[in-house]
């Protein structure tokens, strides 16, 4: 599995994201496009960034009935993204339908990963709001295992969970981990963070890094530092 740094392009408009990407002259980072940018600019923003030579993780976290997810994934597959995701809470049947929809006639498909429990959901909310009376770690690993059974390639998880996910689902099962900060950087609103070097050590396959790169006075240098520390 090729380790890589994915830059979270959490911008509100095409102008902002293109200005940011214009700074990269010698490298073409793998970029994450989330709901904000996608809903603001539509699928054309994906085509344009792809045309510039970037790999794309389209982070739309689908969760609906299996038939709707299958058809929507077929649309995303035609957009030629490299990675996309869904909520494992949609059940194994929904995840299997997603894999079917995403698979192109030639058998290829983008990498498909699952969100287990959002990191904004803690054990108390899970118990009180969702009536899930199990420890959150157990729930996360169970959802990861469901994703594997359904034929997905991996999960989004905190770097602290990556080692355990590999134990439960195997080393080939991809872990994509946000919550990465430089040792000397701002933590911001992230609670449980790791440096790129620590994420590498614990076995993350991809790190998703936003503000340490996008809000840096020198985004290219910050990106290159991430790559040096994580990929080596
Ligand atoms: O700016 P920062 O590095 O915190 O950005 C992290 C990115 O990863 C954001 O796009 C955020 O929405 C996403 N993410 C996260 N935690 C999760 C899932 C996704 O921070 N559990």
Q: What does it look like?
A:
This protein is an alpha/beta fold. It contains 11 helices and 8 strands. It has helices at residues 14-22, 35-41, 44-51, 66-78, 92-102, 123-130, 136-149, 159-169, 196-202, 211-214, 219-230, and strands at residues 4-8, 30-34, 56-62, 83-87, 111-115, 154-156, 174-177, 206-209. Strands 1-2-3-4-5-6-7-8 form an 8-stranded parallel beta barrel, surrounded by 6 helices. Strand 7 (174-177), helix 9 (196-202) and strand 8 form a beta-alpha-beta unit. The model has no long low-confidence stretch (mean pLDDT 95). It binds cytidine-5'-monophosphate (C5P). Cytidine-5'-monophosphate (C5P) binds at residues 8, 10, 34, 118-119, 156, 178-179, 190, 208-212.
Layout of helices and strands:
Elements: E1 4-8, H1 14-22, E2 30-34, H2 35-41, H3 44-51, E3 56-62, H4 66-78, E4 83-87, H5 92-102, E5 111-115, H6 123-130, H7 136-149, E6 154-156, H8 159-169, E7 174-177, H9 196-202, E8 206-209, H10 211-214, H11 219-230
Parallel strand pairs: 1-2, 1-8, 2-3, 3-4, 4-5, 5-6, 6-7, 7-8
Helix pairs in contact: 4-5, 7-8, 9-11
Bound molecules: cytidine-5'-monophosphate.
Residues 8, 10, 34, 118-119, 156, 178-179, 190, 208-212 line the site of cytidine-5'-monophosphate.
């Amino acid at each position: 599995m090729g380790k890589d740094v994915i830059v979270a392009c959490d911008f509100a408009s095409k102008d902002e994201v293109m200005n940011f990407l214009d700074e990269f002259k010698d490298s073409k980072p793998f970029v994450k496009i989330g709901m904000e940018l996608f809903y603001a600019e539509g699928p054309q923003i994906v085509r344009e960034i792809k045309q510039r030579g970037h790999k794309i993780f389209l982070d739309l976290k689908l969760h609906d009935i299996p038939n709707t997810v299958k058809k929507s994934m077929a649309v995303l597959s035609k957009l030629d993204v490299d990675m996309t995701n869904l909520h494992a809470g949609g059940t194994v049947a929904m995840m299997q339908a997603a894999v079917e929809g995403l698979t192109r006639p030639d058998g290829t498909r983008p990498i498909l990963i699952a969100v287990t429990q959002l990191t904004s959901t803690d054990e108390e909310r899970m118990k009180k709001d969702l009536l899930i009376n199990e420890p959150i770690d157990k729930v996360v690993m169970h959802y990861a295992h469901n994703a594997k059974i359904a034929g997905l390639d991996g999960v989004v998880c905190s770097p602290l969970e990556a080692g355990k996910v590999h134990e439960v689902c195997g080393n080939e099962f991809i872990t994509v981990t946000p919550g990465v900060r430089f040792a000397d950087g701002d933590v911001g609103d992230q609670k449980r963070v790791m440096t790129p070097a620590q994420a590498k050590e614990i076995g993350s396959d991809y790190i998703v890094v936003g503000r340490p790169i996008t809000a840096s006075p020198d985004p290219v240098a910050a990106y290159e530092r991430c790559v040096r520390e994580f990929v080596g």
